[in-house]
Design goal:
It is built from three helices and four strands. It is of the alpha+beta class and about 120 residues long. Helix 2 runs antiparallel to helix 3.
Length: about 120
């Protein structure tokens, strides 16, 4: 049996971007993560130690958002890889990284990429 955890609209100020100015000034980003994991004894025994800990997931995302990358695709992959490394019970992750108000020369709410593994 599996269960799904979703953390939505985690917001960060970070320095990702292909332009030097983006990497100096930074921008606002949001991250959405949906994790599918083996349920095991988590629900049956109310075993928090074997669950995917939401706080730990947030901290991993925060740490990876602090590592400057040129693409949000790389940021999403770093988050996914770190989550798999931290929680062996994970079976699937979908991670969306969005750059809010990207510098595209016009009004754009966000530019997003979603990676799944």
């Amino acid at each position: 049996m599996e269960y799904r955890i979703t953390l939505e609209r985690m917001e960060f100020h970070a320095f990702h971007g292909c332009y030097e100015l983006e990497r100096k000034v930074g921008n606002r980003f949001t991250v959405d993560v949906t994790i599918t994991a083996e349920l095991g004894v988590v629900a049956a025994e109310d075993c928090v130690e074997k669950a995917v800990n939401y706080l730990a997931v947030y901290e991993i995302v925060r740490e990876k958002m602090a590592v400057t990358q040129r693409t949000i695709e790389r940021v999403a992959m770093n988050i996914i890889d770190a989550l798999y490394a931290a929680f062996p019970q994970i079976r699937h992750i979908a991670c969306t990284v969005s750059k809010l108000a990207p510098p595209l020369g016009g009004k754009v709410d966000r530019a997003s990429v979603t990676l799944e593994k």
